[in-house]
Write a structure and sequence with these properties.
Layout (H helix, E strand, L loop, with lengths): L1 H7 L6 H34 L4 H53 L2 H4 L4 H43 L1 H7 L3 H38 L1 H6 L3 H54 L4 H42 L22 E9 L5 E10 L4 E5 L6 H6 L9 E6 L2 E2 L5 H5 L2 E4 L8 E2 H5 L8 H10 L3 H6 L7 E2 L8 H15 L3 E5 L7 H15 L3 E5 L11 E6 L2 E6 L1 H7 L2 H26 L1
Parallel strand pairs: 3-10, 3-11, 6-9, 9-10
Antiparallel strand pairs: 1-2, 1-4, 4-5, 7-8, 11-12
Helix pairs in contact: 2-3, 2-5, 2-10, 3-5, 5-6, 5-10, 7-9, 7-10, 9-10, 14-16, 18-19
The structure holds adenosine-5'-triphosphate and magnesium ion (MG).
């Protein structure tokens, strides 16, 4: 009941179509109930009457009346179906909007635990269930109950004895439908599951087509997919076999009624207690009597399924949104100074060990801080605490003296430009992608940003320059090109805090140098957190922070750290001396071969 009320809370703007649909459905039941009476009345008239002007007029009236009824039926059917669907799909639209808005507000913590496919299925498939409920199941119950009541009243008034006899097959019908629901429906659901499985496997498989080719796994993978295809066929055939068995059985139980009416009604008609026209009416109404009984079990099941879908949707909507804005949170309206302090910060993802422990670090405004350390040590994690993608498990971070949690999320994130480690570009034009962080920038500003990022030159060479479509369905960019676009995007946003996570990792040394110069210009009046594996790129940072084993192992300028001969010195040695030496050795070996 609670879920039902919840579903109907989404019908808000669709009260009118829903009301029209319900009215049309009720009227339609009335029309359907009246129709057989025309045949009955005709037979009645033929039996007792003679052909004269009066009967001729009567028949004309019957014909015209029936014509009117059929026209009304057409109009009502249109209204009931169309308006119910307007309401149903309207509700789905409301729900989907609501889900998407909610999805956007959920934390990255939530996303790291979810399969994208699952979320898409919630948004697309489960929300479909609302339509089934509003446009089919509930109207179905209404129509079928009304029809049942209507037909019962008519049959009772025609002849209550025969009416009671027609009830005889009902237990058999109900029994048949119960079994139908018990065996056939689950089989069809199973088929649905196999289909989803096939879809998911195929999706995964095609995404890895490059690997399949590289490892020559074609045959094995074809076999695996083939199995899924066969499993799907088998589940389908199983469902169809059950269906083929049950369908005739269900049909048989409802035809028992016809036998009952022939046997008893026939007798009563001969004995004169049941007029011919009423006997005929019984036959005409019989199907209208049993059909709703059969349909109701399906309606009920649909309601159950729809409510289950609605439950899954509401479960998602009940998911707590992102680190909430504190009620007392203030908006940073001015440009921040960019003074960031980590106060004894520890952090742990939902799953897994602590990543950071007791990190204390002061980043003065307009300073450049480099984070270095072995892979997986927590550099990206540490940087993502600044825009509050996650909140520290202990300790706090302040910006210009405000605890980040005391600032509104939006106003905080407006102060930060990021170039992330895995660049993501949306399907759209180059222009749209660069303007993503600041859609109102002028053409000059955009080109300026692209120039700073060293991207302008390659963009101009694209088939349609800034209007070239990129992303999944567009022109494919190289890793380095993507990186430069995302730098342009960050440059254009022109925020006082800049976070660069491996921003130059996928460009060649020459481009790296160019970007390096660009970034240095950019870092001038900004607080910058830069993460890089190649230590040569962060040599000039004001402070270099070396992370190791969840903590800050050492920090200082390049000169200071080199003098210490600690971890930084060691990493530096490996990169500047040992790696090139190994490389030279390898080359020499190849040459010798
Ligand atoms: N979303 C997540 N959920 C759970 N654990 C995570 C998540 N992201 C990262 N981790 C874990 O946190 C640790 C630190 O990861 P992080 O990405 O911060 O490392 P990193 O220093 O940036 O490494 P790299 O140099 O390879 O980019 C790793 O052990 C990683 O497995
Ligand atoms: Mg990283």
């Amino acid at each position: 009941m609670k879920t039902l009320r919840y579903v109907f809370s989404y019908t808000k703007n669709y009260a009118a179509p829903l009301a029209i649909a319900i009215f049309a459905m009720i009227a339609l039941v009335g029309v359907e109930l009246l129709t057989p009476l025309f045949v009955r009345n005709l037979i009645g008239a033929v039996q007792g009457g003679v052909w004269d002007a009066q009967t001729s007029g009567y028949i004309t009236r019957l014909a015209v009346g029936l014509l009117g009824l059929y026209i009304a039926r057409g109009v009502l059917r249109f209204l009931s179906s169309y308006e119910a669907h307007i309401a149903g799909w309207g509700v789905v639209t409301n729900v989907r909007r609501r889900i998407y808005e909610h999805l956007q507000r959920l934390s990255l913590r939530f996303y790291s635990d979810q399969q994208t496919g699952q979320l898409m299925s919630r948004m697309i498939n489960d929300s479909d269930m609302f339509e089934r409920l509003v446009a089919h199941a509930i109207p179905g119950i209404l129509v079928h109950v009304l029809t049942l009541v209507g037909v019962s009243v008519i049959l009772l008034s025609l002849n209550w004895k025969v009416m009671l006899l027609t009830l005889v097959p009902i237990p058999a019908i109900i029994w048949a439908m119960r079994n139908f629901a018990k065996y056939v429906r689950p089989a069809f659901r199973m088929r649905q599951k196999e289909l989803a499985e096939l879809n998911a496997t195929l999706n995964d498989n095609l995404s890895g087509i490059r690997e399949i080719k590289a490892f020559t796994r074609e045959e094995a993978e074809a076999g695996r997919i083939g199995k899924h295809i066969e499993r799907y066929r088998d589940s389908l055939l199983h469902a169809l076999r059950l269906m083929a068995t049950f369908q005739p059985f269900v049909e048989f139980t409802s035809s028992l009624g016809t036998i009952v009416v022939i046997y008893f009604g026939g007798r009563l008609a001969f004995q004169g207690t049941l007029p011919l026209q009423d006997l005929v009416a019984f036959f005409l109404y019989l199907e209208m009597f049993y059909q709703p009984i059969r349909a109701l079990s399906g309606d009920w099941e649909q309601v159950q399924e729809a409510l289950a879908g609605a439950d899954r949707v509401s479960e998602l909507l009940n998911e707590e949104p992102e680190p909430y804005d504190n009620p007392t949170a203030i908006a940073l309206t001015e440009r921040a100074q960019g003074h960031i302090v980590f106060h004894d910060v520890s952090f742990q993802y939902d799953r897994g060990d602590t990543v950071l422990e007791h990190i204390s670090l002061e980043i003065p405004a307009n300073h450049v801080v480099a984070l270095v350390g072995p892979t997986g040590v927590g550099k990206t994690t540490m940087a993502s605490l600044i825009p509050r993608f996650y909140d520290p498990t202990a300790g706090k971070i302040t910006l210009d003296g405000h605890d980040l949690r005391e600032l509104t999320l939006q106003s905080l994130r407006r102060q930060i430009s990021m170039v992330l480690q895995d660049v993501f570009l949306f399907h759209g034009t180059v222009r749209e992608n660069i303007l993503f962080g600041r859609p109102d920038a002028t053409e000059e500003e955009m080109i300026q940003a692209a120039k700073i990022a060293n991207a302008h030159e390659f963009i101009e060479k694209l088939p349609e320059g800034y209007d070239t479509l990129i992303g999944e369905r567009g022109v494919k960019l190289s890793g380095g090109q993507k990186q430069r676009l995302s730098i342009a995007r960050a440059v254009l946003k022109n925020a006082p805090i800049l976070i660069l996570d491996e921003a130059t990792s996928s460009v060649d040394t020459e481009t790296e140098l160019l970007i390096q110069q660009a970034l240095e210009r950019l870092m001038l009046n900004r607080t910058t957190i830069i993460i890089a594996h190649r230590l040569s790129t962060i040599r000039h940072a004001d402070t270099i922070v070396v992370l190791e084993g969840k903590r800050i192992a050492e920090k200082g300028t390049h000169g200071e750290l080199m003098a210490r001969r600690g971890l930084y010195w060691h990493l530096n040695e490996v990169q500047t001396n040992i790696e090139p030496a190994l490389e030279a050795l390898r080359r020499a070996e190849i040459a010798a071969d």
